[in-house]
């Protein structure tokens, strides 16, 4: 079964976009530690707090 060339282009664009997003997510803590001289504990605490807030906000929108 062939999905067509349009599907291939969309899938490739999605993959590149996702890859770039994860590179950026990895770069933000590195910038905070290296450039802003933040302690690694503070950066990890902020990351964990961000995930916790996202989970709390997402729960009411669940099925």
Can you describe this structure?
This protein is mainly α. It has a domain at 31-63. The chain has two helices and no strands. It has helices at residues 5-34, 40-58. The longest helix is centred in the first third of the chain and has 30 residues, at 5-34. It starts with a helix and ends in a 5-residue tail after the last helix. The mean pLDDT is 86.
Explain briefly what this protein structure is:
This protein has two helices and no strands.
Radius of gyration: 18 Å
Assembly classification: single chain
Distance between the termini: 33 Å
Order of helices and strands: HH
Instruction: State the total count of DSSP E strands.
Output: 0
Counting DSSP H or I runs of 4 or more residues, the number of helices is 2
Low-pLDDT regions: none
